[in-house]
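Appendix B. Raw example, untouched.
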Amino acid sequence: MMSKARTVKEYFASLPADRREALAAVRKVILDNLDKDYEEGMAYGMISYHVPHRVYPPGYHCDPKQPLPFACLASQKNHMAIYLMCIYGSREHEAWFRKAWAKSGKKLDMGKSCIRFKKLDDLALDVLGEAIARVPARQYIRFYEAVIKSSGRAGSKATSAAKPRKKAAKK
């Protein structure tokens, strides 16, 4: 569910009490472990933790007007979720994360970057905190730029659209 809230305070005010409490606890873990160069705000209808333009002027390659996303926290229709971009593109970080989560004894409900949960007790908060702390903003920028460069997606959508497409061979 995409929220129309413009601030984190508005976002929390719009939530039912049980979700507000759970997300507030996860938010505290994130903020306690977040590198000083990240900022909290709203993006894509969720609470966003991102590298602001003052630290990374190019912004997000998909939409350079947006800051570079690092993590998001959301209340969805059937669950709550934390999105960790630092895990999405890094096999090494993902492997560490999965192993650390397994040691916690908690069941992991995870997509590519999304950890879904129904209640706070479903989460290994210490593992989430360490996952956030392990990736300072400057390191994340270097990783992000390497991934973008290796995938050939450097620049914005406009840059990508300017590349000529190969025509399919006629039979």
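End of appendix B.
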